[in-house]
Each structure stands twice: as structure tokens, then as C-alpha cells.
Amino acid sequence: EPEVTQTPSHQVTQMGQEVILRCVPISNHLYFYWYRQILGQKVEFLVSFYNNEISEKSEIFDDQFSVERPDGSNFTLKIRSTKLEDSAMYFCASNSDQGNGYTFGSGTRLTVV
Amino acid sequence: GESVGLHLPTLSVQEGDNSIINCAYSNSASDYFIWYKQESGKGPQFIIDIRSNMDKRQGQRVTVLLNKTVKHLSLQIAATQPGDSAVYFCAETAGNQFYFGTGTSLTVIP
Fold first, then answer.
1. What's the pLDDT tens digit per position in A10-63?
2. Which of A41, B64, B74, B95 is 20 to 30 A from residue B52's alpha carbon, by CA?
3. Contact (Cβ atoms closer than 8 angstroms) between residue B57 and residue B64
4. Would you list the domain boundaries of chain A?
């Protein structure tokens, strides 16, 4: 069964550093998403991406964040100048049709120290 | 903003019994709903979905019921198994992004 692959599974970074979280969506999917889940809290939408541009973003997704699809397979989330409160699980998701459910990756656990 | 919440944060059931997990949503414009299962350390896994033009949908051992009048969604799991132990989220959308509830932790007692 096709999977969304995320790397690394766990990233530890010092406060103020930049991190890039990587995702390989399912190959025939057209819509890509990043969500985050702070420990013990609900999954929160960050951003959606379609046709090489952001289609929607939440209030969380401020100038500290950016997304990119650098080639035909990867979809990245960059977090600049990380803060302690950025520590969370970050999930990438994709789907082939905006009106359908997503396939989520297993997530990257980001720990900012 | 939208509010999606769950009535019970935890649920314990005996193996073999049926489980019912409930969810309330506040956005009357939401037209698509999904139940996800999340096991520890893993991403949300799609279980079943339902669109607002339906009030019931069945899958393998799972049934989702939608009551748009009271903005309530439920997930029924038949013959619950130990492998069903996980956190279950409902998610709703009126467009592109999904709004997730806080989750109900289901524990199946052998």
C-alpha cells in the first residue's frame, strides 16, 4: 500500500536553529499538507500546497515557516529560528483529490532544546 | 473558529464488546467527516469517512453515524479487539483543511 514517508523520525535542535523536515508524498497525489501535534494536544493544520504554491495556511504558519517542493517527489517544511514551543510531532499528508481524506506519514518528532 | 470536540477523553471496553466513540462539531457548513485512529508514535490512520449527504456509512467492523441536526458524529466498532486500542480522532472540513478533535483514548481489556 502506498505510504507517505517522513524523515527524520526524530530531530533534536537547539533553540534558534533552522530545521528542515522532509516528506515524500504518495507519487500520484497532488495535494500536500503539513500538520503538527503538540504532545497531548490535537492535530493542528499548518498549511496546504497545490500546484507549487500554498493554497491555505493557518495562523500558526507565520513567517517562521515555509514549504517547498524542490523536485518531483519531496515536500519540505522549513522552520527558521526554532523556539521551544515548536517542539511537536509534525505530520505530512497528501491526497489525490481535495475532497477526500488524507494519507498521513508517521511524523517527525521535533524537540527544541 | 471551528470547534470539534469529543465527549469522552477515555473509553475502556472488554474485548469482544462493541465500542461507541462520540464527537461533536460546531461548524454547520462542514460537509465531510473522517475518523482517524492514532497509535502511539504513529501518524493518524484513516478509518472511515462520511459526507454530509449521508447519515450512516459502514465499513469492516466500523460504522459512522452522522446527525447533522445536532452536529454529532459517532464511530461504532463491532467486536472490539486489542489491536483497536488507540486514540481516535474525528476530523471535519468545509473545504481544504481538516479540523481535528482532541481525541478519545480507547483501551480494550483482554
1. 999 999 999 999 999 999 899 999 999 998 788 899 999 999 999 999 999 999
2. A41
3. yes
4. 5-97
Considering only the beta carbons, identify the residue of A4, A98, A104 that sits closest to B96: A98
pLDDT tens per residue, range B4-46: 554 448 999 999 999 999 999 988 899 999 999 999 888 899 9
The Cβ-side half-sphere exposure at A72, using a 13 Å CA radius, reads: 2
Q: What structural domains and CATH numbers belong to chain B?
A: 4-109 (2.60.40.10)
Name which CATH class applies to A5-97. Answer: mainly beta
**SS3 annotation, chain B:** CCCEECCCCEEEEECCCCEEEEEEECCCCCCEEEEEEECCCCCCEEEEEEECCCCEEECCCEEEEEECCCCEEEEEECCCCHHHCEEEEEEEECCCCCEECCCEEEEEEC
Q: How far apart are CA A113 and CA A13, in angstroms?
A: 6
State how far residue A89 is from chain B, nearest Cα, in angstroms: 9
Whether residue A72 lies within 8 A of chain B, CB to CB, comes out as: no
To the nearest whole Å, the CA of B102 is away from the closest chain A CA by: 4
B33 touches chain A (CB under 8 A): no
Using a CB–CB cutoff of 8 Å, tell me whether A24 touches chain B. Answer: no
SS3 A82: coil
